[in-house]
Amino acid sequence: MVTGVSPGNVTNDLQAGLEAKVQRVLIWLGPLMLVLWLVAFALSGFLPPHRPSATSDEIAKLYNDHPTMIRLMMVVTMAASALLVPWCIAIAGQIKRIPGAKALATTQMISCSLLSLEFIYPVGIWMANSFRADDRPADITRALNDLGWILFVLVIWSVWIQMLAIAAAVFIDRTPQPILPRWVGWLSLWVSFIIIPAGLVLFFKTGPFAWNGLFGFWIPLTALVTWMLGMTWTVHVALTKQIAEGTDPS
Fold it and tell me: Based on the number of CB atoms within 10 Å of its own CB, is 6 exposed (0-12), middle (13-18) or buried (19 or more)?
């Protein structure tokens, strides 16, 4: 009897390899989003964040001095926010490979997709605020600016659930060769707690817990960037290993 590899198996292997390569592209859209965000916020005058205690005239001046740049950079920021969706889909592709973690994979994917929308809403408010800033009372401009910043910084709870779901998936993986390393589970868990102070910015106009403060903004931002880069690299390594082994990423 002549034995060999069936055409069906060859086709499945080719499809699996292609899927892994696609996911490896998707996972790097997360860092691309971070770069676009940081550049857009810096050029629009939103990074570093202005003071929540700033007067109405100061906020109106911010919008009136360069409204076109703010509009353009907010468009870039809104488009970049959508890149979170393919990024989290690539993460889900790895978590689904962990026995018993498919529900956690779906949880993190939906939570991250919600986060994308939650970032788009405040960006839309800033865009609208810059559209007619020179044709309204300064107090209204400041109120809309406040609304945008409060929504933007407070949207930690969707990513909080995402991080906890990823950590849980990593910790329940008892296979001889875990899909994701344990350290990324601990990183997700610790960052989920580090970002909690950002949820308190509603109660502070000055100090370290305000939306421009150390605990309200800078530490959570640094932790989030570190976590996203760590997740990206970890999933990239896992996908590279999959491509080499020719295993199914789904």
Answer: exposed
Condensed to tens digits (0 to 9), the pLDDT of residues 52-110 reads 999 999 999 999 998 999 999 999 999 999 999 999 999 999 999 999 999 999 999 99
Digit-coded pLDDT (tens) for 29-56: 999 999 999 999 999 999 999 999 999 9
In 3D, which of 169, 173, 223 has the Cα closest to residue 195?
A: 223
Phi, psi of 156 (to 5 degrees): -100, -15
**What's the CA angle centered on 227, arms 225 and 196, to 5 degrees?**
85
* R_g of the chain computed on alpha carbons: 21
Instruction: Mention every residue, 6+ apart, whose C-beta is less than 8 A from residue 177.
Output: none
Separation CA 108–CA 166 (nearest Å)? 7
Token code pair at residue 180: 């994701």
Model's pTM, two decimal places?
Answer: 0.88
Contact 120, 158 (CB under 8 A): no
From 218, 237, 242, 247, select the one nearest 38 (Cα to Cα): 218
Name the token pair of 203.
Answer: 């109660």
59: Cβ contacts below 8 Å, ≥ 6 apart: 50, 138, 141, 142, 145
